[in-house]
Queue: 4 jobs
Job 1
Amino acid sequence: MIEHGASSAAGSSNEDIGSARRDLVLASVGFAASGLGFGLVYGLAAREAGFSLIEATSMSVFVLAGAAQFAAVGLIADGAGWPSIVLLTALLNARHLLYSAAMAPWLGGRARLERAAMAHVLTDETFALSLAHFQRLGRADVLGYWLAAGIDCLSWPIATAVGVLGGQLIPDPAQFGLDVVFPAAIGGLAVKLATGRPEVAAAVAGAALAMVGGIVVGPAISIVVGGLLAPMIGLLIEGKGEPSR
Amino acid sequence: MTVNLVGLALLMAAVTYPFRALPLFAPTTDRLPAVVQRYLRLVGPAILAALAAGNTAFAEDAAGRNSFHLGIEWIAVGLAVLLIAWRGNVLLGVLAAAVLVALGRALTGA
């Protein structure tokens, strides 16, 4: 079971923490490279849809959610109204509720203001990197959280601004395979979290539900459905064989 | 320079932030039933695997719709997952995946 309220890495040796943080930063660099590439593309797309530099960059600072932002740019270009964009944003970002719930046992003991700030930067990347990092250490590491969030969340608005100003000069990031960085890193981190049969079952079920559900109802909804239902399958496996930890 | 869409950005943030924040502000989670705590422990691998699968299996078609897609990306993600599981190095895994996809696309002209 998670060590509740653990809010620092004081109990681990310095070498363990240093090594874990180095790995965390290296993994963050992979995500940041992808974020930079697609931030540039987002900035360019936003400019072509009529966004000013302030409008495009403010969306990257305030929303911090690539899929929702790309969708918003497309909808603005098509002349859609704000209510439909806001509704779609809520749907696309509903999965963050699961991230927050999973992080709560690790970060719940922090000061309210700090939790409020941590929540803003709880993106796909921050969640994946931090959770794997915490599980490796066996406790929360607040500096590690901010390192992961800082590297990934700063690259996005910076790349957006550059994309608005000069994105037309930059080649398609897919040409360099950068579009595969996100699923590759996220999949790898899922495997790192799969330390027992229930976790493996939850991961396999999550992937299967996302694919099957994606065909039936679309990928945005199916990812949330996979994240909600697959842990139940892990619990079933746990109940059948493995003693609870 | 126009700023009209800053309002839209704030509205989008306003509907996103509660999802990211509410559970972090819930009463202390060690009072939750054990089964809920075990469920939350399994959310991580489940949703990350779902995200990885969703982002590999579906791609935007020419009309901008997300549709099921089979391609070199599957092999690249599989390779990355194997490398990360074996070496524990995420950067190595994603570099290998990106190089494989870039080479594959260069060779096939895709």
Job 2
Amino acid sequence: MKKTAWFLAALAVVCACQKDPETPDDSTQEASLPEAPAQEARLLFLLNEGAMGTNNASLDVLNVAQGTYVTGAFKKQNPDAGAGLGDVGNDIAVVADEVWMVINNSGLVEVVSAQDQKEIAAIQVATPRNLAFDDKYAYVTSWNGAYAKGSYDENYKYVITDYKNPKGVVYRINLSTKKVDGSVEVGYQPEGIAFQDGKLYVANSGGISSQLAPNYAYDKTLSIIDTQSFTVTKTVDVQVNLKNVYADGKGNIYVTTLGNYADVHSGLYMLTADGSVKHVGDYVSMSTILDGTVYCVGAENEYDWAAASKIYKAWTAKEGVKADWNFTMDAAVPYGLFALNPETFFVADAVDYWNPGKLSCYYKGKKVWTVTVGVCPGHFAIW
Amino acid sequence: MICLQAPDSLQASYVYAVKELPVVRPSEEVQLSQEVAPPVLVADILRRFTGVQVKDYGGLGGLKTVNVRSLGSEHVGVFLDGIQVDNAQNMQVDLGRFSTEGIGQVSLYNGQKTRRLQTAKEYASGAAVHLDSKRPVHSGGQFRVRGGSFGTINPSASWNQVLGRVTLRVSAEFLHSDGQYKYPCFDTTLVRENSDIRSLRLETQLFGSVKGGEWQLRLYAYGSERGFPGPVIRRALGFPFSAERQADQDLFIQGGWNQDWTARYATAVKFKYANNYTHYNTHPEKNPMSMPWDVHYRQQSAYLSLAQSLVLCSPWSVDLSTDVQHNTLDADSGQFVRPRRTAFTGALATRVVWEKFRAAAHLVYQGTWDRYDASEAGGWSRENSYRDAWMPSLSLFYAPWKWLEADAFVKRSYRLPSFNDLYYTQMGNASLRPESAFQAGADIRAQAALRSWDWELRVSPYYNRVSDKIVAIPTSSQFRWTMLNIGIVDVLGVDIKARTGFHEGDWQGVLTLRYTFQQALDHSDPASLTWGNQVPYIPRHSGSGDLLLGWRKWSFCWESTFTGERWSRSANIPDYRLAPWSISDAALSYTLDLSRRLALDLSLRCNNLFNQRYQIVQGYPMPGFNAMLSLTLRIC
């Protein structure tokens, strides 16, 4: 009996001391571009959202010149940041050789160097969603209104003042000090934001309001902020559940909507320079903009919850005019779209939203390569 | 005092009446009276069983579900005195709700339990955990206080009173734990917050006998209030991981009456009414990072079962069991569709029982009607609201010699889509089919006794296939999920258990070693990256070892469990690998006889002796070393 006791104790100790095996580095994949991009791009960044609550947002980097694709670049370049990038990466953008990433459920805006992806700053912002820049500031939309409205006190502690479904805000962050230096209230659960000609355009979704008593209603407005005075100068009705905002550089603003999952479909709307709103087309699952053209992919059976697969159709919009786009892609769950030039597109496939996704490069309508990426690949930026 | 006899020795089984000879033995069976300082929760007993994975979110208040042989916890039926503890909302039973106090025996059946006068639902679940209360034989009582680490205090009291042919048992139990344990959080060490629980359980049971029969009645009330500490993630300073709280009030009344009418014909009637109230609140005023949910749920179920058993001729008997059940779920969240479900389950079973060879065949039919108020739920169809399934199974038993016996089974069972799968506002697909599980398994047992020693070896290979697995798939919006029947999992495994016991003079001892191999592969989509990978949270290798020693009034036990590497998702890559872990617990107990009718048990249980830092579910750290002292006063 003594022997067996010793055996058990030994078993316990052996197991307790077992070390994790060394993980092999298989994070670099071959991914050469068929055509050098017109713009002088060095790196293409892909922010993988990860799954909520599992702390697995990640940053992937495609080196355009070398034709290599590296996954998990943030963790690799910042080995001391034990917690990694965080929980739910929601937006990414490049400004002045810096990559800015919105880490939604971590309550952080992460700033890294574009060159080597080393951390420069992690800025606290409650439930941040999307960002845009002018030459002095970054502007971050935040739902903190919807969750629990409050503000930062002098010690940078977030103090809650109201939590009964108040409105969201846009925070203004100084690009050089990396400090929040102002905020302005917008609509319910603001999402996308774009800057054009001294104005910010903010898409209000009402994603949470739609689930809350007494109204159970989506927001349907676009808030227009004058950056000089940093106040909302105008609120424009568009359609329920606004999502992304694009400025086409010609004075027009495009807004995508998610619809109400019942009778109002997802779609694309245009706010013209004269202030009128035009419905461009329906069905937008993912979209991007290049040189004033908005590229959309949508599912025509998007509200058929029992369908095993969705029927995707691609289309474009230029100057508010919808046109067919002969683009067939093979993706289980198209989740992100990026146009490098009019012939080169990237499609991010979330696969099952839980396991690593895929990124495919399409050139002249043909798939040239596919690489394995992080979980829920959704947001692109180019440097 | 502990009793260390083999619970299921072969010799004993030969003296049962033909009617009572089991065709299949439980895969595991534990008499709680034989445990040294039993753990507070039943889940901690199941953890040691072969083929069982307890998914534990940590702490006494954390959710604990049981997965048997990789079928998924929705396929595991939990039965309290033969009546199913069900949860139509999500089909998962939280075994963290069941205290070891008042439970006499915990057993696990893989495949098919097949006994006389079972309810139809006992035939219908893929695997079954049975919690059976002990029928008191004498008047007497027990007062116990357990307390220890993480601010845990657990007083309980029970009294049994024999009143002629009726025995009354009343019991009460309170549990408080603040759940504040240290854990490594990335590169620092934090204390788990919002992990506390308070619960109170009050029960009255009546056990009675009549000529040729017996009956029992149980009134159960349970209330709890707890926090959910949330997953450990990177989060900006000043924001908590979670402020979620849940309050529960569970009430049920259940009863049963078994009656032998003639030597050949017997019936069993069972019933249950349950009313479960849950209040879930994310408290956005305390955690601005949380979704603002504040929802009250009320789930009710009414259940009636009639089982009939007829011995046709000496070795051959036929059973017919018919169950009806009605479930409702109400909530005050927006657009809630208030689903109602009426289910009929019928089981026809036939058994041939000789001493050396026994066989049983079962055919179960289950049909469910769902209705829901869809006036506010746009885009959902009412189609396919009737679902039905046939579930056949076959069990064989053969004992060529006294020292060797074997049984085998094949079975197809289904689990219904839960109310959440079908009707949850933000995710739901009203045209889901039931999820199917095919199982085939064998159990070979060899046993020997030599002087004061006895030995037992069990080897149980099995193959399972879960198909039409219900999988949650988000749509183009993160707010809107849908459920589809798309998963297939193939499971190949073997459970091995070796046991030896001795009894010599004042000494007695039992050593049990268990090992489980499980290869559970995702075979959903050959084009997928995860095809052929091990499914989440299933270790290929796991095992446990227990040593029990008794000397006069002292008893001691040592329990070690080991779980090999796992992945938190079917992508078996380093990012999602969970390290293997092993923990060891030890307990020491001493019985002090105060008088002829009064005894005091003193015991100390130390869990996670080597202070292992581990996670069963990714993002949910488990407690390190903890200790529990227990004082039990027994009056008989």
Job 3
Amino acid sequence: MPLPLRYNFRSLLRRPMRALLTAGGTGLAVLVAMLMLALARGVLDGIRESGHPLNVLVTSKGAETIEFSSLDRGVYEKLRHSPEIAQEKGNALASPELYFTTMAATGRGNETTQAIVRGVLPVAFEVHDMVRLAEGRLPSAPGEILVGGLVATKLGINATAVKIGESLKFEGNVWRIVGRIEAPGTVFDSEIWGGLDDLMTASRRAEYSSIVLRAADPAAMEEMIFDFETRRDVLAESREESLYYAAYAENFAPIRSMVIVMAAMMVLGGVFIGMNTLFAAVVGRTREIGVLRVTGYRRWHIALGFLVEALPPALLGGAVACLIALGFNGLGLRIPMGAFRFQIDFPLLGFGLFLSLMIALLGSLWPLWRAMRISTIDAIRHL
Amino acid sequence: MSTTQPTVVEVRDAHKIYQRGGERLDVLQGVSLHVEQGEFLALMGSSGSGKTTLLNIIAGIDFPTSGTVVVNGRDISHFREDQLSAWRTRNIGYIFQSFNLVPVLTAYENVELPLLLLPLNRKRRHEQVMTALDLVGLTDRKDHFPRQLSGGQEQRAAIARALATDPPLVLGDEPTGDLDRVNAESVMHLVAGLCREFGKTFIVVTHDPKVASAATRVLHMDKGVLVAESGLPLAEEVRK
Amino acid sequence: MKLLPLVLRGIIRNPIRAGLTLAGVAVAVFLFTGVISLERGMSRMLGISAGENVLVVAEKYQGCPVQSKLPAAHGDAIAELPAVAAVTRTLFVMSACSRATDLVAVHGIEPGNYRDFRDLRISDAEYAAFSGEKGAAIVGAVVAQRYGWQVGQAVTLQELGGISFTIRGIFEAPGNSLENAILVDLEYLQLATSQPGVVTLLLVQPKEDAEAGALAAEIDALFDASRAPSKTSPEHAFIASAVSGITGLVDFSRWLGFASLGLIVVGVGNSMSMSIRDRTREIALLKIAGFRRAQVLRVILAEAVASALIGGLLGAWLAAWAVSRSAFSISVEGYTIVPHVSIELILLSTLLAALMGLVGSYLPARAASRLTVPRALREVD
């Protein structure tokens, strides 16, 4: 690259205001794009990752989602002895569960918000092995509950209100928090867990919502599901749990398209700003380009120089955007039927920087073409 | 006309036609020219006479629509753009009337520009830059930016850059046009003297009769053709 | 303003710059309008879907309104209350609690007095045909369009266990979430879904002079000790609570709106700052011609505001067009939110764009207006 870099860098610094504003435009676009992508990722992955590849979800016939499913207890009795179910220390990994939404209030407050509650047996922790007890203990008596890491966000309340020892009010009872569960990146993170029988009694329900079975291996899982389609004694439906959550996540697919459109628009806006700046540089230095050309510099030398000039403001903007984005890491946001946490990780930050380069590149296409196109004669005649 | 010196520039029946917005302009209408090494040629004529176009064709910045241009034995009229660029670096030194220098580079860096296109090592390049600056008397101002130089000093830096690659042909498009009388004279003196000293051929487009009077040959153009030539031996005496 | 030709000439002088600035503003305003349209859609839905003064009686403790279950008999008890003018029962059958894609919703209603509670635009003849026939249905215009249904068509829904009905009419209820629903007879639906005597919600119309809060408490007191306690609230609050799951996203998207406004500030500011530098001579000429500092400032700002206004109007109008053409909607707890662009929003977006243009160009414009003639003429680097 014979054209010295200092020519382009000094030219850039000669107009610091527009370099800064271009950086600002790029930064804004990149910041929004990163946050939007983190949102889409959080929402969709947060649901999709909730299923275990070897789990089979049993629901009542015709129920599209767990919320609308109702299973007779007898079904559980019939299923728990299936040979395909994985065993752990002699216990079958079969988890009957109650799942419902309710209106909950904090121990002190009266305002109720929607909360998701799951009644489980201890085996649920084996079947949903991405859930672990992070703090405290399992409920050992009626009236005790566990809360997921994102419950406070889901309820729209302060995290201190759901510390161990605090209480929540729902289904006409007061419940004491005795433990905290962690299941980051899954739906379970925004749920309240309690004893199965305890919750069934309190919510006056006589039936389970679902039964989750862990198959011993993939072949066993296929057996299990096939079995269901043929047996007559059990009125229920089964499917792979991961498929269930994948389908459920698709409900939010429009959010993903919306997010991509928004991010693309911001990027386009950033491109226009960068393009405007580089255009001014190219047109404003037409005579200079002519002098360089007469000296013997080629079109692509000069064009490459301008491209190099477009990069530092974009990268600066991108870097600042990354710094600001980091401030959002871990931030919780409530969504319909749950909540998620912003995850600002290295791949996302890398993407942000890459995007800022892309903005510079796209914004430079037309100005560079202009710089390449002009003939030496016309360039030296300018001004 | 002395035939002892080798021909540096040979233009044969050059035509240049521009199409500007549907209009056809015949800028050069069959120009033939023969320039020997060491000549100081002044091209004069009114605006639109084609003198600058002729200069630019010789410089390899523009190309004739028809006809040939042979410089230093190479027919450049059919060179591709890449070839012309490379050729120009080594064969041409060009001085504009104004805005010769890149504003963000120092005088040193401006002079260095053509040398960066040649396969020279840093030491050699530095030597050549310093030599050129020395020839024009700008060594003490080498790290100044153009805005810190006077008009005359800027032109001298331009001259240094034009000479940096030691080209056989130096061309100027009204190089003293923006300068006051005193500066114009000294700058013209400088560049003509250096060309003579190093055996370079110098072709200048000019309005200034003083410049013309310093030249060994003066050609007049009008409406795209050479109309007159005045190359008085008297001029040679005056110069000496 | 006599300065208008000067201002317009300034914009046209560098068409590429003007075009790029305009395009940038248009994109930003398009985004802003699109984002706010979702918010507006939500308030509009709330405003229209909630019946005035209507109280909703739902199952106590139920977090998802769609899943509320109460005995139909509750309606009789409520009707007895002195402060009650009318009661109607509804049964919702839906496939999911929250869905962003097409939600199929069937409402079982009591045709007799339903129209007292809901504003349905449908011909009386069609409504009468519907009321008279058990297996009949009237469908919302949005649903009808989505599936291409016609009056007289017999439909069986694959989802929801295969409910069948014959369409006797198509109704409109602009802005009301109901346009996404299929209405059938309550008892018919109860039988079809094997839920005899079960309703989802009861809607109560209080008498003119009745106090809504007191009536709500009274109704809940009726069933407090029963096996199906209730929670009664004004419909507006009820729906707001139902869709509260989406407020997190809506609030977040508002920040996106701010970011796009920021883009306008930066874009117009940058463009003006470059324009000014190119035209220092022109500014000097203006001053020589007698323009004072404040006037020069005004000319430059007017140019920035004009660019932003034109770009903003373009972007807002495009957003309005895009929203009207798109089938985008979000369903939360059975209520459908559709983005809505009103004239007011277009005006707001355009004016905000102009304001942001003003903000962005203020500092460069002020610096330019302060240029003294000698400096300007010298075309300082």
Job 4
Amino acid sequence: MRIVHYVNQFFAGVGGEEAAGVAPAVREGAVGPGRALAAQLGSEHEIVATVYCGDDYAASRSSATEEVLELVRGFEPDLLVAGPAFTSGRYGLACARLAAAAAREGIRSVAAMHPDNPGLDEAEPAPVIESGRIGREMRQSIERLAGAIKTLARGEELHEGDGRIGRAPRRNRISETNGATRSVELLLARMAGDRERTEVPLPSFASVTPSAPLEDAASARIALLTEGALVPMGNPDRLESARATRWLRYQLDGLDELEEGAYQSVHGGFSTVAANADPHRLLPLDVARDLEREGRIGTLHHEYLVTAGNGTQVATARSFGVEWAAELRQAGVQAAILTAT
Amino acid sequence: MLLCNLVSIAIRVGAPRIVPTHGIPFPTGDPELTPEEERRLRRRLLDRALEALGTAVDGPTVFDPAETTADADAAVDTPGSPESAASEVPSP
């Protein structure tokens, strides 16, 4: 098979965080982890090109997936391989979105990442193969991925036994035993100590690694964020009041306070009367400006980021989190205060 | 860091630094208070938020605003009344 491999700027050898903003680009042949993968795959398959993109660029630009996919199309591959992204959130999202977009237009694709990666839920309909948690587990991760690629090359589908993780497309089939029998079997398995087996996996909340403490708030740039759906009166950008699919940004520069009547909350999950009467009940701009004037914080970030946290899918919310973090890091923000309703 | 009322949910999803607030629809306010009291409450919440941001944590950690050490009220209230500032926040 002709394979195009996607990696981030780090694994492409371009650089670390300082290069996280680089735009999508191409290297001929296999690069970095692609070389190990090519060695595992043998001569039957060839990695014809490596496409890469900076993590921040990939996570914070809505056009990034299409830009990368355009480069992939140029090689007319039989298969697109993305990752392994381990637990790296921005990288995982980029891999998942690219694999999904490719699969939707008929390019076969597979991504690799750790089950805790926030990208996992965005890869559908493309399959995802489990990788280790960190780059040190590259060797085992590449071996498993190579095995899955060989399975795909034989025209077979990937299953749990191949290391497939995440949601698989549902297919109706007739079971040999009815629901009552299967539920008793699950119960017996559980009593015997199996705590994992289920027919309906629940969404899992990955663990969050806390950031290091802020060394000096007085010199830091601090951002205000809210999921309280606070938007300018009239909701000009039409933020959804529930099941939000996006987030927005609004200027705070030149504002000391949020005037009553100039903002409204469009959140559909609580009474917005109190918040509309005084928007500072959702976004504490007045006091944040006091803190800025007194030198308790360095600078207040010039805009606030907002979405509606109401019935939002965990996967969507996780992606917003990764996008916000990438966005704020690029803007030189060291800490953020998020109000939640 | 996160300012919210539903602390148990915040802990369950792993938010590392949490400051509890008075009510779900108004994380940085409380319409029951006078405007002056409400602004003092908001200040106290943000002061606590800054303390939370400056503190190393291993996992979800709740920073109760009643336990703040750098309370804005101490500066504006009559001397010797840090306890009264703390008691304004109802215990959960």
